[in-house]
Design brief:
The protein has 250 residues and is of the alpha/beta class. The chain has helices at 6-24, 41-44, 64-71, 83-95, 133-143, 197-206, 222-229, 234-237; strands at residues 54-58, 75-80, 100-104, 118-124, 144-155, 162-163, 168-169, 179-183, 188-192, 210-215, 243-249. The protein has one domain: Vaccinia Virus protein VP39 (Rossmann fold, 3-Layer(aba) Sandwich). GO terms for molecular function: S-adenosylmethionine-dependent methyltransferase activity.
């Protein structure tokens, strides 16, 4: 693996510690899906026909997304910073009898991958764990061929600032300080970054991408939201998109 930046050791340690319980929590089905909120490719239509494409999944975790793409005929490479997540992904790919190539790299330093290798880069709910998102986008731009596409989802930054208990804002939309939580049982710290939509688009532009679409999938009504999230204040939280999906071309 390329050298891990000391700031990223924390993400690696957290995910190595959390991987087993994260994967056993359930809900991680093999699907071409960008996360919660009706955000399957069938609803979003952002990827098109992936058959025959060279595709990289960045922050692949268990690679449920990448395996589903491979089942559709894509040549898939999965990249993750966590050895435990990659080991789970490898086992899952074998279980589903698909060939996926796995690389242990940080998405901010894809130095094990040559430039111009992929037609498509996808990522689901990984980039909020990455401090240097600019470096991540620059690396995605480098490993994509000209005209290639990056499609990724993160938590919607507006959804994350609402406190469902108090119905108030937990913090300002403009406050970009990360959310931190130390776990004694994991002996590791979770650090999650939140960026506004404008900042994310600016970072994509700085890396040479043109944003082609932004999707904010959500729920038509509180019952649908509750079916996915349980009784987590559905009347309030169903009013905001939980997920934001960006599609950008290089
Ligand atoms: C919430 S999981 C999402 C995994 C998968 N995409 C999914 O939808 O289940 C976030 C993943 O990002 C990975 N990750 C965090 N920081 C990373 C980095 N700098 N480089 C590569 N992977 C990273 C973690 O190891 C973890 O597997």
């Amino acid at each position: 693996m390329a050298g891990v930046d000391p700031d990223e050791e924390q993400a690696r340690a957290w995910w190595n510690a959390w991987s087993e319980s994260f994967q056993s929590e359930g809900g991680h089905s093999i699907a071409i899906a960008f996360g919660p909120g009706a955000s399957e490719e069938d609803d979003l239509g952002l990827l098109g026909n992936v058959s025959g494409t060279d595709t990289v999944e960045l922050g692949c975790g268990g690679a449920q997304f990448g395996i589903a793409l491979a089942q559709q005929g894509a040549n898939v490479t999965g990249v993750d910073i966590s050895e435990e997540q990659l080991s789970y992904a490898q086992g899952l790919a074998e279980e589903h009898d698909v060939d996926v190539n796995f690389i242990h790299n940080s998405v901010t330093d894809l130095s094990d991958i040559s430039g111009g290798t992929f037609d498509l880069a996808v990522s689901a709910f990984a980039f909020q764990w990455v401090e240097d998102l600019g470096a991540c986008f620059s690396e995605a731009a480098r490993v994509l061929r000209d005209g290639g596409t990056l499609v990724f989802s993160v938590d919607h930054p507006y959804y994350k600032i609402i406190d469902p208990e108090s119905h108030e804002f937990k913090k300002s939309y403009f406050d970009d300080s990360p959310r931190r939580a130390y776990s004694d049982s994991f002996d590791a710290e979770m650090v999650v970054y939140s960026r506004g939509v404008g900042e994310t688009v600016q970072l994509l532009n700085d890396a040479g991408f043109s944003v082609e679409a932004i999707r904010e999938p959500g729920y038509e009504n509180p019952e649908e939201y509750e079916a996915e999230y349980g009784s987590f204040k559905p009347e309030l939280m169903a009013k905001v998109p939980p997920t934001i999906v960006y599609s950008a071309r290089i």
